[in-house]
Design a protein that fits this description.
- The protein is an alpha/beta fold and about 290 residues long.
- It has a single domain, classed as Rossmann fold (3-Layer(aba) Sandwich).
- Helix content is about 35%, strand content about 25%.
- It contains ten helices and eleven strands.
- The strands form two sheets. Strands 4-7-6-5-8-9-11-10 form an eight-stranded mixed β-sheet, sandwiched between helices. Strands 1-2-3 form a three-stranded antiparallel β-sheet, with helices on one face.
- Helix 4 links the parallel strand 5 and strand 6.
- The relative contact order is 0.14.
- Pfam families: Methyltransf_25, Zn_ribbon_RlmA.
- This is Methyltransferase domain-containing protein.
- One of its GO terms (molecular function) is metal ion binding.
- One of its GO terms (biological process) is methylation.
Length: about 290
């Protein structure tokens, strides 16, 4: 979108925002979000707003997000995302004349997951859907705003989300860190958190290669499920497991986008990328947790 269209989009939905410094309501003035205490955050020409209070150190950089976008466009996450869409359809009411269904992707990266889910819901003749993507990485959010579907894209800290209280219908938290206190604050009373976490077989072929002699070869998400259940009523926990035949051209992108590779030596990385130079079957394995306010 042009910067003028982006500004109008932010103006239309400015009531969603709360200042990350003082929590006061915000409004759009010219091309900036301004709170009642005068804290000001400019909308970048790429179409996102940076509401960070400091620049964080993170390994989630532009090459990682570029790799994730390639993997997403290859369809490797589609079974997971389609399952999440089904969960939204089955738990939300549909009707004309209602305000948009507000989806907040907490840890949106470069926006591909939120874009897919928005489009999938619209294709099913769902009610109007407003996507809001928040990520700690400005690189990821900038990429989302430039190339992903129209949505509200924000660089922001999940510990101080710039969203007013009880404004969100669904919080999506897909393979990303959580801040459950903030999730509870932003979620409507009848809203739902949908969290996707790795299951024991997720990317097991890569895990076996990178962690041959390490306990990290075996993975359990038991602690993540317990923590989620302490903060939200667990309405459902569903497993989504499937195998994907990864072409050699995409193997490097898959490896570069996962933190599993961060501590691997150059030799192991090259060995994983090559993997005999032919398509390799890789397992994708997730638990999808659906939680409500208690």
């Amino acid at each position: 979108m042009s910067i003028n269209r982006v500004s109008r989009f932010f103006a239309e939905h400015a009531a969603l925002f709360a200042c990350p410094i003082c929590s006061q309501p915000m409004r759009l003035q010219h091309r900036s979000l301004l709170c009642t205490h005068g804290h000001c955050f400019d909308i970048a020409k790429q179409g996102y707003v940076n509401l960070m209070l400091h620049t964080p150190k993170t390994k989630y950089d532009k090459p990682l997000f570029a790799a994730r976008r390639i993997i997403s466009r290859a369809g490797y996450f589609e079974p997971l995302l389609a399952h999440i869409c089904t969960g939204i359809v089955n738990t939300s009411s549909q009707g004309s004349g209602e305000e948009p269904l507000r989806l907040l992707d907490a840890g949106c990266g470069e926006g591909s997951h939120l874009t897919f889910i928005q489009q999938k819901l619209r294709d099913q003749a769902w009610r109007d859907v407003l996507g809001i993507g928040i990520d700690l990485s400005r690189e990821g959010v900038r990429m989302a705003a430039k190339e992903a579907a129209p949505a509200i894209w924000c660089a922001a800290d999940l510990a101080r989300c710039p969203i007013a209280e009880e404004r969100i219908d669904y919080i999506l938290n897909i393979l990303s860190p959580s801040n459950y206190a903030e999730f509870r604050r932003m979620l409507k009373d009848e809203g739902m958190v949908i969290k996707a976490i790795p299951e024991s077989d997720h990317l097991r072929q890569l895990r076996s290669l990178f962690f041959k002699r390490s306990k990290r070869r075996d993975y359990s998400n038991e602690h993540s499920v317990e923590l989620f259940s302490k903060h939200f009523e667990l309405a459902a926990a569903e497993r989504v497991r499937y195998n994907v035949l990864v072409e050699p051209a995409n193997m490097e992108h898959l490896i570069r986008m996962t933190p599993l590779s961060w501590r691997a030596s150059d030799r192991l990385l090259r060995e994983a990328i090559d993997l005999n130079g032919r398509p390799t079957e890789i397992t994708f394995d997730f638990s999808v947790l659906f939680g409500k306010k208690r």
